[in-house]
Design brief:
This is glycerophosphodiester phosphodiesterase. Keywords: Glycerol metabolism, Hydrolase, Signal. Strands 1, 2, 3, 6, 7, 8, 9, 12 and 13 form a 9-stranded mixed beta sheet that branches. This protein folds into 2 domains: 2-116 and 207-423, Phosphatidylinositol (PI) phosphodiesterase (TIM Barrel, Alpha-Beta Barrel), CATH 3.20.20.190; 124-191, no CATH class. With 431 residues, it is of the alpha/beta class. Helices cover 33% and strands 13% of the residues. Helix 1 (2-17) packs parallel to helix 4. The N and C termini lie far apart (45 Å). The chain is built from 18 helices and 13 strands.
Length: 431
């Protein structure tokens, strides 16, 4: 039943996306052409909606000039949690296939650990209660780190279920769902809802989860020679390492060895981690992979650490790190007029240090009309200067051409694919 339902949902999405879809026409970054001639890159209406919403000017005119393509697969467009996450459950087969259909040349699997030391795709080790139907499976819900507790007059509904609570096979039996929960729920069934208003439950029909092995096989099988960006998830406090004697270092080795076992060329892999020790282990023990290792940086979230985070960038480059990956808000600032968006001191310092930059995450937020009122994380540094959705491409253009980032993670890959094709931007590894 899973396959039938998921296939129907994905087919419906692809029909929606295939609006005047041009024939696949090659890669903007010259990666080897292996796609079938009848494989379509389908961008759907969203890029055109954003362009229509833009203020008239040279950037809008340039983007309008590309409205009929041709559009190709580009590694500048990176499928965040698969690339279809705005509408399809994250880290699933369906999201990955949607991101691929929208032209993402690199596709992500956040890699978590199970109780039997299996490696699976899940954005957080302890998010199963909001991203899967585990609470509807009594035999698995009983294993959760914190069982479901219904809301009452004084407390919100709670639960905490981790990949380490169950085996790899048990994980693979789950249905992935849109990330969300209902804090007012009094039953596990009611707790399944609560998706942010700007996403949808239209395709929330038992999406298929992935293991690291099945993700590699899927991405390797997709037309267009797609590449990989797996992230090794840092275990939270609820899962102290070593876990059953299993160390963080062995976790990082097994993660990399999986790609070796599948015969994947290191040039196709951009491994990520927020933990510096993981990156340095890959640099030292797997140098062919390590040279493309991506250090995910969120150390500047605390304003007290901002200057330190900026000043250490040259030292990271000197230590062997080649790629830094911060959130969008680290790279952008507002000029003295409180209206003009400009590159931040972080972006300038990183470029001057010789670091390549891959940013995250585009299309993760709701309408730009609400980002200031909602204190949206990704726009905190420029909230005073963004007011309407047409500015999405203005923001992307500052990062793409003014700063020169090498790629952008996106929850809806079509938006970034359109821009990268129109501007002929080269993805990571294509200098």
């Amino acid at each position: 039943m899973r396959t039938t339902i998921s296939t129907i949902a994905l087919t419906a999405l692809l029909v929606e996306l295939a609006v005047a879809a041009p024939t696949y026409s090659g890669h903007t970054d010259r990666i080897p052409y292996t796609a079938k001639d009848d494989y379509y890159i389908s961008l759907g209406p969203r890029p055109y909606y954003i362009i229509q919403n833009m203020t008239d000017g040279p950037l809008k005119q340039k983007l309008e000039s590309c409205e009929n393509g041709p559009f190709g697969i580009t590694t500048w467009s990176i499928g965040h949690r698969g690339g279809g996450t705005l509408m399809i459950p994250e880290e699933s087969v369906e999201s990955t296939m949607a991101g691929a259909r929208m032209g993402a040349g690199i596709l992500e699997c956040d890699t978590a650990l199970t109780s039997d030391l299996g490696l699976v795709c899940r954005h957080s080790i302890c998010d199963l209660h909001t991203t899967t139907d585990i609470l509807l499976r009594p035999e698995l819900a009983a294993k959760c780190h914190t069982p479901f507790s219904p809301a009452n007059a004084t407390h919100a509904a709670t639960a905490l279920c981790c990949t380490t609570d169950i085996t790899k096979d048990e994980f693979m039996s789950l249905c992935s769902k849109m990330d969300g929960s209902n804090s007012s729920a009094t039953t596990p069934a009611a707790y399944q809802h609560g998706v942010p208003f700007f996403r949808t439950e239209l395709y929330d029909t038992c999406a298929q989860p992935m293991s690291l092995d099945s993700y590699i096989d899927l991405v390797d099988s997709l037309p267009g020679y797609r590449n990989f960006t797996p992230e090794l998830k840092t275990p939270p406090s609820q899962v102290p390492m070593p876990f059953k004697g299993y160390t963080q270092a062995q976790y990082a080795r097994d993660f990399m060895q999986t790609f070796i076992n599948h015969g994947i060329d290191p040039s196709r892999v951009w491994p990520q981690s927020f933990t510096p020790a993981d990156v340095y282990l890959w640099l030292n023990e797997y140098p062919a992979f390590g040279k493309q290792a991506v250090f995910l940086d969120e150390d500047g979230d605390d304003p007290a650490n901002w200057t330190t985070a900026v000043n250490r960038l040259p030292a990271l480059k000197a230590s062997g790190v080649n790629i830094i990956s911060p959130p969008i808000n680290y790279l952008l600032a507002v000029a003295a007029d409180n209206k003009t968006i400009v590159p931040s001191d972080y972006a300038i310092t990183a470029k001057n240090a010789g670091l390549d930059i891959i940013a995250w995450s585009f299309e993760r937020s709701g309408p730009l009309t609400r980002v200031k009122a909602d204190d949206d994380y990704y726009y905190t540094s420029i909230a005073d200067a963004v007011h309407y959705d047409g500015q999405l491409y203005e923001v992307l253009d500052i990062m793409g051409r003014d700063i020169g980032i090498k790629g952008m993670f996106a929850d809806w890959s079509a938006t970034v694919t359109y821009y990268a094709n129109c501007m002929d931007l080269k993805g990571p590894g294509n200098n």
